[in-house]
Amino acid sequence: MNRRAIGLCSVILFLVAGFVVTDKSLCAAADKVHKKDVKRMPKAKIEEEIEENNVVVQETGDAEEEPQEVAVDEFDVQQKQKEVQRLVERGVEFCAKNSMPAICNVFTHTKTFLEGELYLFLLDAKGVVYAHGDREDLVWKNMWEHRDSFGALAIQSMIKTATVSGAWVTYEWAGSAKVSFVKKIQIEDKDYIIGCGFYPHSKKYAVIGLVKGAVGLFNQDVKSGYPVGDTFGAMGYTRSERFVFGDLYLYALDFDGVIRAQGEEPGLIGTNALEREDAQGKMINKEIIEKLKSKNEGEGIWVEYHSKNALKYAYAEKVKDRDGKYYFIACGYYPEINRDKTVELVRRGYQFMKGSGVSVAAKEFTGIENTYRLGDLSLFVYDLKGVCIAEGNNAQLVGHNMYDEKD
After folding, report:
1. Structural domains of the chain ordered from first start
2. What is the pTM of this model?
């Protein structure tokens, strides 16, 4: 066996891609002002009313359900959106025929409006939860000031977004990006918000959620009088649990093109990237700024460009500080990166290292700008003692023994 083969056998080639989210506990301030108003009707009367309106009520219980395996790659977002809208429409129809006590009871305590992981929730325009098909403990609580893990006022955003015809809103819930369909309805001459949501298992919605969370934090910090530099600092911190989800990170520029936050390369903060071009000559940041000039705050735009040898989509929204200065906050992802591309990249790296040797391959694989980088996929090489030989995403790890490193 020649030296090159021996050297090749002494290293292990890995590649990782994906993103993680952290679980966050939810909290809300109790508000029992409305509780007595809804509980006046006896249970027997509620059941009588439901029966009169020909509603089949499925009681909650411990009946076993057959587990269903669903591959993430097969998740159909459009189909799920239709299911969500249908459930909301069923709920709206039920609300039109029944009293508030009956509505709260059925939405919260029965399976009538449960479809798999989908459920209904109902709250008033002040943020008080009247019914919740998944979290009974939230009923009667005022969630107006509830902030998600990004610091955004998720319930306020939901209430402001809801319309009579219905609208979609993205926010963070239970540690992940969630998309809900919300409608404004009237029950007994009072405005309420009825909604249903789902977790899209999609980087597209994770990106939107990340940006909207950062926008919410920025607006709240401006309102509270905090320096915008501190807010951008939180977004650009590479180890932030709030604004870095695996390979997703935030970046922010002012409308003059100066980088104010950069979650991947903090060293770029303070530089001007207004005329930055992608591999095909597109001035990405100029395009983002021009598109956002005609948008209202809270409205986002998408742009596509090429980065790190792959197609990238970026979502951006604009924000304004106390002095009227505009910035944009953005996040992007690589839509064409999948399991097959990951395997292909590892195989390419293996063949190159086999033909060129470990030392040559290590130099080629290391650093953000290399030909073996595909979007946010990168190669890394370790020997069997845990010493890092090459690292496509963090060259500082090269030479360090990571054998006892913990996640």
Report:
1. 3-17+338-397 (no CATH), 29-60+74-201 (3.30.450.20), 213-333 (3.30.450.20)
2. 0.61
